[in-house]
Design brief:
Blueprint (H helix, E strand, L loop, with lengths): L4 E5 L3 H14 L9 E6 L1 H10 L10 E2 L15 H6 L2 E5 L2 E7 L4 E6 L2 E6 L5 E7 L2 E9 L1 E5 L7 H4 L11 E7 L10 E4 L4 E6 L6 E5 L2 E3 L2 E8 L5 E5 L5 H8 L4
Parallel strand pairs: 1-2, 2-3
Antiparallel strand pairs: 4-17, 5-6, 5-16, 7-10, 7-14, 8-9, 8-13, 10-11, 11-12, 13-16, 14-15
Length: 254
Amino acid sequence: MVRKLAFLAADTAEAQRARRELERVYGAVPVEAADVLVPLGGDGFMLETLHAHLDRRIPIYGMNLGTVGFLLNAFRIDGLLERIAEATPVDLHPLRMRAELASGEVRESLAINEVSVYRETRQAAWLAIDIDGICRLPQLVCDGVLVATPAGSTAYNLSAHGSIIPLGAELLALTPISPFRPRRWRGALLPSRTRFTIRVLDAEKRPVSAVADYSEFRDVLRVDVWEDRAIACRLLFDPEHNLEERILKEQFIP
């Protein structure tokens, strides 16, 4: 049975109240001493928690006090220890983004959901896309393009009309954002071992930004993206509402 919990709360009155009540009922320990982290908030706060603790490999059982709560469980105070003990674990591997900037800098970041590359100005971006070192799309005229994990395939990727990916499929989604040319290209599903390279054409006239979840770098020339299998974050879900079931249900919503 899990005994040591650390509660984290988003900066909202509701989440802060819930944290105080949970700590009163279950006690609390510092993050460094916890068996499980329990973030309270929405999906944005859950992503912040995952990023902040990627190096610890500690299980995370989130409870939703936000809007959508796709990565979180329902909020209830009663029976929390039993729920955590019976939870289904899901291991997620983040994407690593390496961005070369016009200034000559090279910046790296990690993404749980997606890496997106998109235009900075009123003019469309001109991009070339290499897959494992081979140019597959010499020119994509668009607002941008993104690479999404299965967990992120129901987020920005879905809004951009990308494919939803079941967990365990070992696939990543490559999805254009408002493509103009080639107009009929709707993206691709590729093995999770794929290395993506997005090259910016005419970067001076058509500047482009790169974003890994919420880390943004402006004026990029080239972006490399790959799944970092050396890093894993473990999420815990109630069996009746596990992440695999949620992703499956999303594919049948009219």
